[in-house]
Structure formats: C-alpha cells, structure tokens
Amino acid sequence: MALNNLSDKTPGTPLAVMLLLGSAALWSTGGVLIKWIDWNPMAITGVRSAIASVVLLTFIGKPKITWSFAQLGGALSFTVTVFLFVSAIKLTTAANAVLLHYTTPIYTALFSSWFLKERTSPYDWLATAVVVGGVALFFFDKLEARGLWGNIMAISSGFTWAWLALFLRKQKSGSPFESILLGHWLTFIIGIPFMFRGGPSVQGWVGLALLGIFQLGISYVMYAYAIRKVKAIEAILIFAIEPVLNPILVFIIIGEMPGKMALFGAVIVLGAVTVRSIFHIKRGNVDSEDKP
Q1: pLDDT at 141 > cutoff 60
Q2: If 0-12 CB within 10 Å is exposed, 13-18 middle and 19+ buried, where does residue 64 land?
Q3: Predicted pLDDT at 240
Q4: Considering the domain boundaries, does residue 53 fall inside one?
Q5: Nearest Cα residue to 254 out of 32, 30, 26, 25
Q6: Closest Cα to residue 210, out of 41, 16, 37?
Q7: Domain that holds residue 246
Q8: For residues 103 and 151, is the Cβ–Cβ distance under 8 A?
Q9: Is residue 98 part of a domain?
Q10: Residue 98's closest CA among 288, 273, 277, 275?
C-alpha cells in the first residue's frame, strides 16, 4: 500500500499503538548503531539515507515531486538535520545528542506563530524557558572541545528538524513524504565525496544496513501507517520512549554514560516537552508533525 493513500486503510488503534511502539524502538537504535560504525559521519549519513530511500520508495509508490517551496524546504531541512544529528552522536554522548535534539517541539511551537499563522500560547513560552534552563545544564559537565561541538550540533539539529515539521505542515493537503524522500537523495549526494575516505568494516556495513533498512526506513513506514489512527496523547507518550531508550541501549552495549548535570538537564527537557505536548492535546491543538 502506498504511503500517500493511508486515510481509509490504516490499521485499528491497538495495532497502530504497537506499530508506533515499534517505530520508537527502531528510532532508539540510532545512537548505538552510529557509535558502532567506525567511519566518517558524513559518509554514514549518506549511505544510511541511500538505503532508507529504497525502502521508502517501495511503500510510497509513485512519488509526487512538485518542486514546491515547501517540499524543497522540507528536503533541505531533513538533510541538514541528519548530518548534524549523526555528527553530534559521534562527537558527544548519545544521551546528549538525542535529548538536545528532542527540543524540536519547542522550536516548532515558536516559529509556527508567524510561519503557519498558528497561535503561540503563554504556556509555549513557559515551556521554552524551562527547556532553555534544562539545555544549559548539559554544558555544565566537563566537556572536551569535541563534546562541546557535539552539543551545539545536537541543539542545531533540533532547530532544523523543527523546520522540517513546519514545511511538512505546509503540505498537509499534498504529499509531505516526498520531502523526506528528496531529503534522503540530497543527503546521499552530499555524502558521496566522504565515502572515498576509507571505509567501514564488515561490522560497519551490517550497522549501515540496519540503520538504513530498519532505523530510518521501516520505522517511518510504521509511523506513517499508525500515526493517523492513534490518539494524540498516545502518540506523545510513545514518542517519549525514544529519547529515554536510546542512551540506555548505548550504555548497555557500549558503556557510554552521560554526566550528572546532563542527566539532570535531560529530565527537565524531557519533562517540559512532554507536559507541553500533553497540554496542547488537552486544548485540542496538536499535530502529529510535532514529533521530535
């Protein structure tokens, strides 16, 4: 079934919840798999997107490429985000990268007021202030230069991912998944020059296949099928699983542990974003594209 024709044929709610849980679990493997691959982050990102684009094409059917401003803006936002995020995971801890990236809904709420003419409530500004305080704590840990730049890239990836959400909302009456597909193609093209600088081991190629097929490919197919059938409150709570599970997997498999101040900041960021999202659901003002 093509992703563009889901409105009347999506699964029932119990199955949809299971699919969202599955997609969140697959997303959470990104940290450990990226850490697992000893290769240039730009090359990793490009190959991962090349594989994922094949998976998405299988389910999208015939793409509807319009070259509209919103479609191209979404593609560019996606490309910049994935390069920043993968680089951040290589430079700082997975926990820092994922949880700083998780600030996306805050940026989405703030910029939607003028880009989409959607009202920003006082509670959005309050949540933003709390998140900024939580983010600041990530920088109180003793960081090497690599870790500092990794944190900056992670924050920036949350900012650019918010713009992807805004551009996808602009295409509600169209076919927003083509932005993701174009983003994958652009990511692959940009990553090509970096693929000639050495190469991954056999283990690395296995990791790349898992990243492309499952973590970034099938996960978004599951998400696309399920998101239109679950309740908003279920979606928000399920999405909160990823930023918690991701660093846990990295700790169990690789042994990487974030600093104490970062952990404290993580609790603040995760709590503020989740509470803000639940509040918007209660007011009937939430969008599935708010997913971080």
Answers
A1: yes
A2: middle
A3: 82
A4: yes
A5: 32
A6: 37
A7: 9-290
A8: no
A9: yes
A10: 273
Task: Tokens 């602009």: give the residue.
Answer: 170
Q: Which of 283, 291, 235 is nearest to 20 (CA)?
A: 235
Which range is least confidently modeled, 145-149, 223-227, 240-244?
Answer: 223-227
Contact predicate 211/30, CB 8 Å: yes
- Do the domain assignments include residue 64? yes
What residues contact 67, with CB distance under 8 A and at least 6 apart?
Answer: none
Q: How far apart, in Å, are the Cα atoms of 19 and each of 6, 223, 227, 238, 292?
A: 14, 7, 9, 10, 17
Nearest to 257 by CA among 51, 125, 94, 101: 94
CB 269 within 8 A of CB 131: yes
In the chain, how many domains are there?
1
Tokens for 277, please give them: 């999202």
Assigned token pair, 88: 């951040």
Burial string for 257-286 (b: 16+ CB within 10 Å, else e) reads ebbeebbbbbebbbebbbebbbbbbeeeeb
| pLDDT score recorded for residue 225 | 77
Alpha carbons 162 and 68: distance in angstroms, whole number: 19
Contacts of 1 (CB under 8 A, 6+ apart): 9, 59
Unique residue bearing structure tokens 């918007």? 280
217 found inside a domain: yes
- Report the predicted TM-score, pTM, of the whole model to 2 decimal places: 0.87
